[in-house]
Amino acid sequence: MKYKSDIIFWLPRLLTIAAIGFVSIFALDAFDPKLSFMQQILGFLLHMVPSFLLLAILIYAWRHEKIGGLMLMLIGIGFAPLIFYKNYQHNGDIAMSLSIIALVCFPFILAGLLFLYSYWWRHQEEKNYNKS
Asked: What is the pLDDT of residues 74-87, one digit of tens each?
């Protein structure tokens, strides 16, 4: 069963990395030819703050799956109303705002659940190993 435990270990980590990469793409809108180079770099770094925070949570979750998984789930659930509200104000379309929530928030909720499952799986394997 080593293959299955490898998948269970790596899937939440790779999903979180991909979701952070997706969120990081939005920082590219800080580059505007009308701004000076330093203003563009400062704007980019400010736009990257959420990605840096998510990366810090991923690093923590790598070792502490239970707490890290809960943190990722709370971030996904907690930011959903804010993202919905801002997007609904911008476009006025409920379906589009919900689809944006699905693209941005759902991967973190899913990754959090997968971290919790990985934690549970690892402890079940340890219990089975100690029995034999």
From this structure: 999 999 999 999 88
